[in-house]
Amino acid sequence: MVFSDRDSLWDAWGSWSECSRTCGGGASYSLRRCLSSKSCEGRNIRYRTCSNVDCPPEAGDFRTQQCSAHNDVKYQGQFYEWLPVPNDPDNPCSLRCQAKETNLIVELAPKVLDGTRCYTESLDMCISGLCQIVGCDRQLGSPVKEDNCGVCDGDGSTCRLVRGQYKSQLLANKLDDTVVVIPYGSRHVRLVLKGPDHLYLETKTLQGVKGENSLGLTGSFIVDNSSVEFQKFADKEILRIPGPLTADFTVKIHYVGVADSTVQFIFYQPIIHRWRETDFFPCSVSCGGGYQLTSAECYDMRSNRVVADQYCHYYPENIKPKPKLQECNLDPCPASDGYKQIMPYDLYHPLPRWESTPWTACSSSCGGGIQSRTVSCVEEDIQGLVSSVEEWKCMYTPRMAIVQPCNIFDCPKWLAQEWSPCTVTCGQGLRYRVVLCIDHRGMHTGGCSPKTKPHIKEECIVPTPCYKPKEKLPIEAKLPWYKQAQELEEGTAISEEPT
């Protein structure tokens, strides 16, 4: 490798630091040292993304966590419950939070933690207080974008554009009607109602759980884990859902006026049923030269199961692959046999396959456990009826495991933060620290044993002599330890026991 004069003044890059986050996309840095007695041209630090796996739903939003960390610290003498103020166009990487049920908005920190998203609907992340571009490939500075189907650097072939218009038809005995059913996984949903009537939503998850939302007021809210934006005006309503939808959404209209209403809608619907080419079927003969074919089966991308062909015929974009033919078992038949054995499978029927029941619940919630399932060999007839058959028919492919380890991550444990400054500037006082129960992802959780919790306050002595009379308190430190200093003034006993 050839180094320029500019690069030769630098030492080699050091190892990468730990990731700033355990999930959801964080940042890691590497440093290098200038070997020149003068300054070096260039930067001594570089960054890369890390932990680019989605956080579990219960983990919550990273910016929200940072705001809520200030809930137990007084602001101007009062406690507040802080909520994030996202999408600040001027400084997206400052921690601006709003006190719940008030108009009070405060910058609680000049910089959010590395890995925090700059904007709600973007992968761009804050690093050292600056917003850095992140592509859909999760790489810093990458220009790669998702297509309308949600595929990174895709060509838009995995979804289809659906647009249409609905016009209300007032009937004396009809109070509402279905406008459109938008399936699971759809993206970039937009509906505009013009007229006196009102939109509302019905949902159904893949597990069959049903829900309803009346869309009463303008605002943003969550419906079945999907973000919904709704605007209500005097003569029209606008509904936006970025997606992907986590349930089937049925948009309905409720008739409230005598005039007609129209609804225009547009969204990108995923092609969830696709043709998949099978492996070659067994050879038509056991020896002496025969042939074998492939076929195509219709595959449900949501349930990861083979379904009837009619589902794939629904999409004009789906073109069924033509069968492939090849010769097989070309070796001559043994002289003792003198005949070809015909294999017992119909070339045009699906092969027998392994099927399994869902995994049982894990035997342990953390620290490692096991879960099991039942595996059987099944066969599907021409009518699509599935029945159990002898296991030897499925032995052409490995049998699925019936036992697997689960929840192998460590159990939650206590993590003590650094001690606060002493509550006094001279003499004897108190100091405090935050003790959190942290899970294997580094997230604040529950489940730690109270018996092993480290203590959160202790005595401290500042060696500076106090020159004030004993009956007066020493000079107090500033917030956030004002509350504890007050307790000392009131004569609260100092305790080593955890609270």
UniProtKB/TrEMBL annotation:
GO terms for cellular component: extracellular matrix; extracellular region. Keywords: Disulfide bond, Repeat, Secreted, Signal. Disulfide bonds join C19-C50, C23-C55, C34-C40. GO terms for biological process: extracellular matrix organization. It is found in: Secreted. Its main location: secreted. Pfam families: ADAMTS_CR_3, ADAMTS_spacer1, TSP1_ADAMTS, TSP_1. Transmembrane segments: none annotated. InterPro entries: ADAMTS/ADAMTS-like (IPR013273), ADAMTS_ADAMTS-like (IPR050439), ADAMTS_CR_3 (IPR045371), ADAMTS_spacer1 (IPR010294), TSP1_rpt (IPR000884), TSP1_rpt_sf (IPR036383). This is ADAMTS-like protein 1. The lineage of its organism: Eukaryota, Metazoa, Chordata, Craniata, Vertebrata.
